[in-house]
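Bit of a strange request maybe. I'm writing a small parser for structure token strings and I need a real example to test against, not something I typed by hand. Could someone generate the tokens for this chain?
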Amino acid sequence: QLSLEMLEAITKLAHRLTALGLEPSLVHVYPAIESYESPFLGLNKEIQDFVSEYHDFLTQKCETHCDEKQALVLMSQCHDVLQKIRKRAPETGITIRLTQTLVRMQQIMKRLDTLLCLMQSQGEARHQIAVKLFKELVTADNRRFSLRDVFSTHTELLALRVTENAGRTGDHYVTTTRRDYFAMMRSGIGAGFIVGFMAVLKVLAGKLSLAPIGAAFLYSMNYSLGFMLVHVLHFTIATKQPAMTAASIAASIQESENSKDRNLDGLAELCVNVFRTQFIAILGNVMLSMPMGWLLAMCWYFYTGHHLADPDKVQHLLHDLDPIKSLAIFHAAIAGVCLFLSGLISGYYDNKALHNRIGERLRQRRTLQWILGEPRLLRLTQYLDNNLGALAGNFYFGIMLGSMGTLGFILGLPIDIRHITFSSAYFSFALVGSDHSLPLSTIAISLAGVIGIGFTNLVVSFGLALVVAMKSRGVHYRQWMPLGGMVLKRFRHNPLRFFWPPKETTDQAQSPAP
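Reply from user aminoacidic:
Good idea to test on real output. This should exercise your parser:
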């Protein structure tokens, strides 16, 4: 009787797997399922033959029955199709529905494989499979209402797609040659130039008598449009990098874990390159945002006759930079969380642009064809295909920064943000507003606050992004200790490499920029 029940379970699982194998979401990603004979249909037919013959054998209508080998071969083909779908997902995008379908199919195939092996095994092997299945059933029954398990299982693939989209962008934020190193510095300097004007607009908006929501809107648009302009001009905000490069490091850790020799030298070198790139990008941002803030404040005083920051504003700006007497470090950590979320948003919209074919759809709009013309429309849609995620991430990041203070005011909580590039410009405003008469101790504390804010921005955003990227790839933490030892060894041997790129070899000089 138990064997008959297992045959009934095998039949139901085969029907469910076949139905899921013909889902439109799967066909959208892998159209070849419809072009050729689907292995899911073949598996269903083979399962029906196997169940029919085994049923006749159990009811003594025949003396023999077929084995499960052919069914296992077809299951292997089904596994191959799922792997192809997973590999094609980065090119076509993925949805929550497709994620749930893939997870469900994987679970069904695992249970089907267990039941087939249980039906055909004998002796001790049969007992081991039965005990293992019993444990799985008991565990599943105890945890069937666990929200944590559902969230972890169904978000793994979606998180992987999002972090991979961010990781492909992160590859551009890792420099290996001096040419790329100085290109990153110039990119950071360009961003510092724009941030100087954004900081002036932020201070001027603060002088207006606006309701909290109105002030939040002006601040948000200032940040959002400014960050989007920085991206359009191919400049770099240094604090945006960690959320992107974390996915690249997680991918390297996974490759190292999967390799037989598990050589971490390449990964340690990647960490050095990432640190050096972060350093020069931050230096480029501060290198121009601080003098640009000073220049704009002086120009404002020259043309208007009064300082951009009055004495009360000077004291307020200096207090916000004080890492001891204010919540500057805590607010910098909040900004780091916003940076991390903006990285996820960028990956989400990159995935959405691929899956929904936004560029292709826009190219079909006759109104846009008439207004822009086909050549311009093609360039615009190609740009959106490649940059929609970055633009959306910058836009939402600006909204988070601009509205965080208002949110804290509404909730009555000490919530605000501190960003290193803007903080360096605000220090220049305070310096000019005080007629360059700040005590050396105040200058030292303010500069220490700027450094602490930048460090907190980077550590929080990078740490959160790296944890999510590692979790989505199933990476374990056991390699962190030897990896940290290799990085420290490189620092002791040659600390200059963490701040200055090595001399280019012939191969490096001939290789294209990443």
